[in-house]
């Protein structure tokens, strides 16, 4: 089960009011390679993942991704909370604003709403783990493009933290894959 | 029982159509303040992003 | 939020983060004794820090103990805090 701890994983600092940046950051909130997709992918795949190491890794990384989803939500919230309507008009955030005000919502930077089709669970650990490793790389790349366009130093600092987490997750999924491939070589379990 | 998972004589690194990821062996660790700042406890896994191109990530992954 | 509370939260974040890293490492390296020692030390440290924080500022989880009235709901909530002192 899940327990909520009333603190973020990282001390987030947002230095500016910037609706345009918020509209880009939201890509990692409700986008295909964002934190919610990652979290739900791993937490969904874990039911049929063999090996205790695999179940634990998918559960714990999935849970950490939800904590990252919270950080992204925080970034978007803080970037627009003090914005006047004039600061929002004419920016990519205006389209979001007319539907959701300054509220959060699950869509990407282009406004495309989130869908479960962003991930799969194939009940084959080799398949699922390769998808997980690819997902971490896609997230890392997205953070790199976001770092390129961010002009808020506090936001950039948080993006660097989140990007580094993807690299560590990639390594862990790789290790689970190794364990499963080594296990397969001894015992055929299907 | 788990020794073979850390063995350098891996079972599948000579197999075709198979991914191989090297196992991390914990070496140095950052202190708690450095760890949070870097985004990892392990200097071995720290890979900062340099958008100016000299450290372009894809080169390291190639 | 005052500096002292922010500093305590950051220290909780730091130790908590070490635990995330040790747990993820141990999930694929359950036999690494050195990692397990590091994890258990950080775990003890975290419990102590959490107790100290909660005694002053209220529970961090809704399973924690609270003074009267119920302090878990107190603001600010995590997305409302700006850590702008670094």
From TrEMBL, chain A:
Its cofactor is Ca(2+); Mn(2+). It comes from the Bacteria. Binds 1 Ca(2+) ion per subunit. This is Manganese catalase family protein. Ca(2+) binds at residue 60. SUPFAM superfamilies: Ferritin-like. Keywords: Calcium, Manganese, Metal-binding. One of its GO terms (molecular function) is metal ion binding. It comes from Paratissierella segnis. Belongs to the manganese catalase family. Mn(2+) binds at residues 35, 65, 68, 136, 169.
UniProtKB/TrEMBL annotation, chain C:
Keywords: Capsid protein, Virion. This is Spore coat protein CotJB. Residues 8-80 form the Protein CotJB domain. It holds the Pfam family CotJB.
